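User: I want to check something. If I give you two sequences, will you return the structure for each one separately, not as a complex?

Assistant: Yes, each is folded on its own. Here is the first sequence with its structure:
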Amino acid sequence: MKRNVKAKLAPMLASALALSLLAACSNGGNGGNAASGTAASGTNSEASASGSAAATQTAGAAGEKTPEPLTLNIMLWGDKPKQFDEVVAEFERRTKDTLNLKLKVTFTPQADYVNKLKLKLSAGEQVDIAFDAPWMNMNAFIAKDSYTNLDGYFNNDQYPGLQKAFGSGYLENNKFTGTDGQLHTYGMPLGQYLSDMPVIYYRKDLAAKYGMSDIKSFEDLTAYFDQVLANDKNMIPFVIRNDGNYGATAAIDFNKDLPVKYEAGLWDLNLAPNVVATLQLDGKTVKGVKLTGDKQDSAAAFPAPFNQPDYTTYQTIREWHDKGYIEKEPIVRKDARGTFTAGKAASMMEGVANLDAVNAQLKAGVPSAELGMFVVQKTVRDMVQPNPTLISDFRVWNFLCIPKTSANADRAMAFINWIFENQDNHDLFELGIKGKNWEPVGDDKFKYPDGIDTLQNYTFPGYMLTWNPNYIRLSANVPDDLVAYYRYVADEKSYVRSALAGFAFNQDPVKNQLANPDFAKISTETLAYQLGMVETPAAGMQKLQAKWESNKTLQSDIAAIKAELKKQVEAFLAQQSGT
């Protein structure tokens, strides 16, 4: 999941972004072009690639009779954005004589969303649009034939917004295998860049106070931490989240000369929450698989140094803990950003997309503060191409799906089509009401109106509805030197294409094994090491490894998952090679 990168770069960058991403997705496409003529298979959908009367009418095309009023039931996760109802009202006003839709959008807390969506679809409740992703329910629902095949809505003159925003190359790498064994579009792919760009936000005013210039290297960063400890003893040098994300692990690993996995034929694959596999590939054969919680012997045949555990990062995190760079008990820190913006910490890590929100909150908490940004990944700072840390399957992470329980697939797709018909439509949902919530800066940037309370302003998580490589605006506050990094992460040449690009693991055959609660316990047990809270990391991890290996049920489930994964991956590789 990615945060809001609000931007459309200068024309050259915008074009480069769209063309490079689409070109990247066109190389090595997966299977045939199912969008060329397959009818959409929603329960009540009549749309096809050649268009239909229903599709034409519901799309609100010029000269068509206004369709009957209809309310769309939409499920999104997280908290409802401030002023969201006003944006919806503006949409309904603009489209009353064309789409004639009302939107009933239900926001569900993230902890409850997955189960709530499952229950609603199992009960056959009317859900017209649902946010989903392979890291949530999507693969399982596709395997159960619960989502509508959307092929017919793309490359379709009746949906010009979809034609404009979703080229064939982009769609090809975001297809999934259906119950017929063929690749289809089962969700609207939502993405801007192929990777996030984490930065460490720090206090430039404090660095100046210490006689330091801007942070440009890892050595500068640790020197800054040392100065904080020496001069502001009540301030945390680097505040980290209690879930381990955007923390010390990333800061350290991204600045180490790590061995390159793919050069050894090793590829990582996320199978489910808390379950990651490393596969050793040789042509179309899976030579070995190691899973979260697996026996160390499963990696014995991997090329060195990947055949042995490496706990050095955990040891360095503990050193940071002992020096005081991070807190003694970071597990209790629920709001790292709030701690930083209140002036209680000298730095923190988040995505660069959150620049405006972080800056606004820091100014509110410490009016005299000045925000600095340090790009965390050394290979990104050096603009290495291809970048060994940027492995991509050229898939996006998030999708909008149409459940087969919906009787309104055409009308739902007409709504999504409207969002992508032009920049103004798109900007309404991504940025809010122009002139009230935001103002354009040229053709490719935006700013907030003078005097606006940004903490109460409309902020929408675009990864759930609006992200697309053709519609990107950058904040006017993005420094010029960071624009070069945006260009870098938009460039296909910056990425290594995964050997598993196009593969989607079907969890259904081993869903019970993947649901083993011990996988979540492993994540909880290793979190303490990511937070630097274990005095002797290597010895502690060896004890955990022995505990996992002695868990017979866990090892049995791991063996079943590995066997199923090997079968599916080898079938995929055989299909890719045409054998």
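And separately, the second sequence with its own structure:
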Amino acid sequence: MTNEAFTREDLQGAMRAGILSPPQLEALSAYLDGLRQPSMSGIDAEELRFVRGFHDIFITIGLLTLLSGLFFLMGFSDTWALGFSAQAVVIWGLSEVFARRMRLALPSFVLSVLFLPATLLALVFGVAALMDARLPGSQSSWNGAMGAVEGLPLVLLTAAATAIAAVHYARFRVPVGVAVIAAGGMSCLVAILAAVDPLRVDNHLPWLGLAAGLAAFALAMRFDSRDLSRRTITSDKAFWLHFLAAPLLVHSTLMLMLSGLEGAGAGDILQALVMLSLVVVLALVAVLVDRRAILVSGLGYFGVAISMLLLSAEVSDTVGTSIALLVLGSFILLLGSAWVPVRRHLLAPFAGTRLMRHVPAAQ
């Protein structure tokens, strides 16, 4: 019998039947995964377990088609609150089938991601509908609904939607749910600050994004440190938190840096060099913690920076775009191909330090 004899769904079924405890499930899964000897280790390959076959994709197409039809059907309803409430209820019902009973990875992922926004929109438009007598038209548009619930009501509704999403995660245990809850928590914080001083939130949005990104990154590293071998769903939770943190960190940092440079009258060349420097730093961090999602969010800025340098050299738009794409593609391929040796050399000075308690060892 090989390690392919039992799928993870089989083991999870054994746990639900009381044959295995959750710790035994994780230990057995790690052991079976360890029997594989791939050309690249699972750690460095950064394997994702949110799709396991075309059956998952086929079911997901059906889910998205069904939910899209339900969304367009809402156009015939007099209130968006009823429509989004129906969306949230249907998503929960589908989760019972595809996430809890069938344990299909990709459908579970999609349903978990969609549940929080559907719930929040149902609550916002529901309260707006109750207030429609005082503010006519508040339930018929997004701006009208937000105007009806701004301030403390929006804080409470966002917190309630996040709490309901946490219940959804507690029942279905889909790894991406941790990132969804984290995003809900960030939204609650922004809603609280906006209720206190909306103008200050607008003026300090990049700083808020940076703080949120750092918090998500710290939480992701906490999960990563609990599964350095990257063999359990704890690693999947960390991946989605990194996926959430990366764009917040990259975009907020660049907004702060570029706004400062523009205020100082810096030219395009200096701004492009700053972008490239940030991408280099992101690449080092990504290789160090062995998470490519951190770097992916900065690749677009890498291409923009190359284009800015070429335009400063009076290269035509068509040629500049072509060269930028060639350089960007070459950078991705070279770093991806040399990821393991580069990481080995980068981690060498940190051998035996506390850092190695939080990142996977070099292969």
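Because they were folded independently, the notes below concern the second chain alone. The two ends are 28 Å apart (CA to CA). The CA atoms of residues 287 and 342 lie 8 Å apart.
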